[in-house]
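A common beginner's mistake is to predict each chain separately and then try to dock the pieces by hand. The better habit, illustrated here, is to supply every component at once so that their relative placement is modeled jointly.
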Amino acid sequence: MLDIKITRTDSPKEKPQGPLGFGKIFTDHMFMMNYTEGQGWHDPRIVPFQDLTLSPACVVFHYGQEMFEGLKAYRGEDGKSYLFRPDMNGKRTNKSNERLCIPQLPVEDFVQAVKAIVKVDEDWIPSDPGTSLYIRPFIIGTDAFLGVAPSQTYLFMIILSPSGAYYSSGLEPVGIWIEDDYVRAVRGGMGFAKTGGNYACSLAAQVKAHDDGYSQVLWLDGVERKYIEEVGAMNIFFKIDGKIVTPMLNGSILPGITRDSVLHLCRAWGLPTEERRISVDELLEAQKGGKLEEVFGTGTAAVISPVGKLRYQDEVMTIGDGSIGPVSQKLYDTVTGIQLGKLEDPFGWRVAID
Ligand code: PLP
Ligand code: COI
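With all components supplied together, the output reads:
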């Protein structure tokens, strides 16, 4: 159990009015905790949101030793505040940490810290439809040393951002660019970890896709550039001939918490699901045969995000009739319904902040 010291701001900010966008506004406070080799994690504290002072020689600036997480707090129908499966983010933190030689952080401490900072800034949780408080925990290596070695000191922080939809188009289907030149990750690399390097690596392709009018990039495997992996900020699902199909977790994609939740829900509804390799050729063939029925991405920020168009080289696959498909819609309604406390929570995913 962490003994968290709380220092409240004496100049609270105005709450935002109007559309929030994603990740642009920050609340009044943040959580911080240090790690020092030999001492472990220490000094958990909540302080006013502020800039950091760090040595320009910090490991994180040069070699990217860092990890981050993403989850949300929701304003429930009953006015209470809820989290969604925060223990899963805590467990994934430790998988990322292990890969990046960052010390382990007890899952219960992670969840306690998230609950504590959300509680302090609880009145920042927005309540308009489609809004929530995006929670960004992250850890950075802070040793001031230019040799390439794991840091001996770290900073764990949590910042909060009241946010709306990740895509400005909301539930309108997005266009996705299947990238066949750049790759994001290979097996044995760090694709499964949530770490800045994976996102830095994705930017060049994302810029290319944006320039062509596509919202995000769909990555192919790093070896054959043939099998579907995931999207820049989401896992990907296909409904092919009545089956819900998604790439298996192979070490190079992020094990998404929304992905896991969607698989649980589809199985509970009796829909056939498959986690396996999916080639682009299979998608092209399914689309030509009229069997590519729905495509959607899943993610904390993106929730369930319908895909209306997939571009691969000079082929453009149009999915459905330009509106959200029935399974994608049902998943969106169910996932958000559970998160907001509108629906039963049969799997015990909702966690109240009290
Ligand atoms: N894949 C990538 C690369 C992501 O950045 C995200 C977002 O977190 C996801 C998948 C979806 O993961 P989750 O559902 O846990 O948010
Ligand atoms: C999330 O969905 O939590 C993400 O981290 C996506 C992103 C904004 C990188």
